[in-house]
Design brief:
Helix content: over 70%
Structural class: mainly alpha
Strand order of the largest sheet: 2-1-3
Strand content: under 5%
Order of helices and strands: HEHHHEHHHEHHHHH
Oligomer: single chain
Radius of gyration: 26 Å
Number of helices: 12
Number of strands: 3
């Protein structure tokens, strides 16, 4: 403060010196940059800004699929809880899967539908973090839960005499609870690492929702820790369950081939629905993340739109198909649904 050349001739107010105009602008600019990098009020969800007509079509389509998800999975949850004949490990896992699909789609689909109706959809930083946490947790939980369901089918077919002991209630309830816990802990770790990053730029997320990979591209800091953490998580929650499921079904198919045809077909039918769900679930994930990225700018733009649409329909297609596959391929579920409808429509 002793150097008069650094202080303007304007009067001081209080104890804070007033800087000249150029210095005022520099400080203001620096303060703005620091604020932009450290404090994020919210994000803008880009969606499909160049295809407004498609957004209206997708709104109707996604809404119908979402209502189907709520109805189909809601009925499955209801019958697995209310019908005592379905109080077995297989249907307990199925009820968990249906409830999981309801939670997973509800964490993102309403946001997507709202975005289709709003020209410039914004979401708060905290809201984005919560949405990322729920979606990531539900996805990781489903990966583990499908592995548990494969183990249940393996024990039922390959070791039927030991099934009541191995898959007792003291075993399958903690298995399902462990799936939820593992998915939640993994999501907490990944999202905690993400929200600590400084974000800069226009805060526009090139997606329908706060997809974590799209959010990380906005960080103006080293994200190598995030990449490594997500890589480890992918091995644990994708690689290990897929390998476990493949090994389980190799043993299952080998056992079924040794069984006389009529009984073998009956046992095979109990696995076909689960195997179909797994192929759709993991196949779509591999299609989304394993395909090569385009290096051509025009091709990259088209691929970005393709990736967003694939991710969007992946988030609703599998949860919508799960109850259809299980109800159409399972006599016990169809009987339970019919019994439930009779009780509701024709009460005693």
């Amino acid at each position: 403060m002793r150097h008069s050349s650094q202080v303007s001739s304007r009067p001081h107010h209080g104890l804070i010196p007033t800087l000249d105009t150029d210095q005022d602008l520099s400080v203001a600019k620096l303060s703005s940059e620091v604020a932009n990098q450290s404090v994020v009020a919210g994000f803008v969800l880009l969606g499909l800004p160049d295809h407004p007509r498609l957004e209206k079509t997708f709104f109707v389509l996604i809404l119908l699929m979402y209502l189907t998800i709520l109805l189909g999975n809601g009925v499955l949850v209801l019958v697995t809880v209310s019908d005592s004949r379905l109080h077995t490990p297989m249907y307990f896992f199925l009820g968990n899967l249906s409830f999981l699909d309801i939670c997973y789609t509800t964490s993102s689909v309403p946001l997507v539908l709202d975005g289709f109706l709003t020209p410039r959809k914004t979401i708060s930083f905290s809201g984005c973090a919560v949405q990322m946490f729920l979606s990531f947790a539900m996805g990781a939980t489903e990966c583990v839960l499908l592995g548990m369901m494969a183990f249940d089918r393996y024990v039922a077919i390959c070791n039927p005499l030991r099934y009541p002991v191995v898959m007792s209630k003291a075993a399958y309830v903690p298995m399902a609870a462990g799936s939820w816990l593992a998915g939640g802990v993994n999501s907490l770790v990944q999202i905690s690492l993400a929200v600590q990053l400084p974000f800069c730029g226009d805060h526009v997320i090139n997606h329908f929702t706060c997809e974590i990979l799209a959010v990380l591209t906005l960080a103006c800091a080293d994200i190598s820790t995030n990449v490594i953490s997500m890589g480890v998580a992918n091995v644990i929650f994708l690689g290990v369950p897929v390998l476990f499921i493949l090994v389980s079904y190799i043993f299952i198919l080998t056992t079924i081939l040794r069984i006389p045809s009529a009984e073998g077909r009956k046992k095979a039918s109990t696995c076909s629905a689960h195997l179909t769900v797994m192929v759709i679930f993991y196949g779509t994930i591999l299609f989304m993340y394993a395909k090569p990225k385009s290096k051509d700018p025009l091709g990259a733009d088209k691929q970005a739109v393709s990736d967003k649409l694939t991710s969007l329909f992946y988030g609703v297609l599998t949860p919508m198909l799960n109850p259809i596959i299980y109800s159409l391929r399972n006599k016990d579920v169809k009987a339970a649904v019919k019994n439930l409808m009779n009780q509701k429509c024709f009460p005693q």
